[in-house]
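tool=predict chain=A
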Amino acid sequence: MQDLSDSGSRMKLRRFATYIEALPNGLASYPAYTQKAAVYRRVLAEFGAVPDLTALPEELRTLVSEPLPVSAWMPEVEVNALYLALADVHGMSDTEFIDGFYAVNRAVLSSPLYRVLFFVLAPERLVRGAATRWGSFHQGIVLAIKAGPRQATVRMEYPASLMPELLARAYVTAFQAAVELAGGRNVSFVVGEYTPTHTIFDGSWD
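tool=predict ok
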């Protein structure tokens, strides 16, 4: 594994190092929690090519140089670590990282596979069904959703430190994009509460 004790490496891969150190068994933590490779493939395309693969941790380089098939399942921890390492290597601010995920979610949800949903479902029904669609891309992490007229609360539960706060803030953009595409106006989805084991998203729209 790349030596993160070196101060230069630690600074360059700050988000990645902080995430790995918080996990009980590093990159080997929580192997039963997985994500569909289609998501990370889209993130790689949005974030752009990595000029120097050696800048990434050794364990993650192959995920970039030889991307997995879109139908493959991969450990959630590895994906999260890769996202944070890419943000570090590209020198992204937190805002740029979140904006990048918003663009990814708009692109995925605008694809022919999902676009039809926005013609037949109102925002409230769309949000209520989000847990099922989440399960198409994630296994293990649980969503509990309460949706009413023009508002919703989403609770995401996961093992300790699996979901870093920055990535939780990035994932909330999926709900933002979905409600916008379904015709919602003045849409707002924010992280109302974050802890190492759960995140609560609060949403509203007109």
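Confidence is low (pLDDT under 50) at residues 1-10. The radius of gyration is 17 Å.
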